[in-house]
Amino acid sequence: MYICAMKEKNQLIKGTLVTIVLKLLQDQNRMYGYEITKKVKELTKGNMEITEGALYPTLHKLEAEGLIFSTIESIGNRPRKYYQLTQSGNLEANEKIADLFVFISDLQSIFKLKPSF
């Protein structure tokens, strides 16, 4: 594991946030915002945290672009907004994931890292 300053780590997360959100929605079918933040933290064993201030503008942007859609359900007395991929969102997720794998491969070449996935 590597350690980087918080500002640099946040920049790395920001650069991949759309891909992360699309991939999680692709894997989980539908999720609500807090669930997304919890899942990222869980999957990264706490190494990566997504703030609401970063997540919700991303979700709104993806929805405006037609890559995701939302539905609101009442859980108890509280409304909960769930997000799901559209068909074009699923295609975009696949493209972004493929691009990310190429980028990771390029980084491995530059830094002579051993692949672990």
Please give the share of residues in helix: 55-70%
Quote the distance from N terminus to C terminus.
14 Å
Q: What is the C-alpha radius of gyration, as a whole number of Å?
A: 15 Å
Structural class: alpha+beta
Main sheet summary: 3 strands, antiparallel
Number of helices: 4
Strand content: 15-25%
What is the string of SSEs from the N terminus onward?
Answer: HEHHEEH
Shape: globular
The count of β-strands is 3
Average per-residue pLDDT, rounded, comes to 88
Distinctive features:
117 residues, alpha+beta, three-stranded antiparallel sheet, 4 helices, 16% strand, globular, disordered N terminus
Structure description:
- With 117 residues, the chain is of the alpha+beta class.
- The two termini are 14 Å apart.
- The N terminus is likely disordered.
- The chain is globular.
- It contains four helices and three strands.
